[in-house]
Specification:
Layout (H helix, E strand, L loop, with lengths): L1 H40 L3 H4 L10 E4 L2 E4 L1 H11 L3 H4 L1 E13 L2 E11 L5 E12 L2 E9 L1
């Protein structure tokens, strides 16, 4: 009987620890997204891109197809949003942050850009991976 109680206590402890870690991961991911929102709203695309994995393996999937790599994604953003009138003020609603496996999550959300050249809204899904102790977006699809 003592073994069963000990086993139940251990399972309960491990479950609580896993949930605490998952909550910490989600908060860290939300911090990255908040930094991106602030940088975007200051028309600082380079700072916004700090949330992305600086790798040729980064993938961005938008209406014009797939863009591969950090530098090409940066160039894409700069061409599509050349001035502060185009970047505007970013806000978003996070609809879901779900764990894929240890060190990886996907985030579903909606974005809104309040801009002088006309507002824009859409949806996005990003995949975060913990790389060298930091949460980075490794894939992004927005429409």
């Amino acid at each position: 009987m003592k073994h069963i109680i000990l086993l139940l206590c251990l399972v309960s402890f491990l479950n609580g620890t896993a949930q605490a870690t998952e909550d910490e991961d989600k908060k860290s991911i939300e911090k990255v997204l908040k930094k991106q929102r602030i940088a975007w709203s200051k028309n600082n695309i380079e700072e916004f891109m700090e949330g992305y994995w600086k790798s040729d393996s980064l993938k961005f999937y938008g209406k014009n197809g797939v863009t591969y790599g950090w530098y090409d994604t940066l160039d894409r953003y700069k061409k599509a949003y050349p001035t502060e009138d185009h970047t505007g003020k970013l806000s978003f609603k996070l609809n879901d942050i779900s764990k894929i496996n240890d060190g990886a999550y996907f985030v579903l959300g909606e974005y809104h850009l309040k801009r002088n050249v006309g507002n824009a809204t859409g949806i996005f899904m990003v995949i975060f991976k913990k790389i060298n102790g930091e949460w980075k977006i490794i894939a992004d699809t927005s429409s």
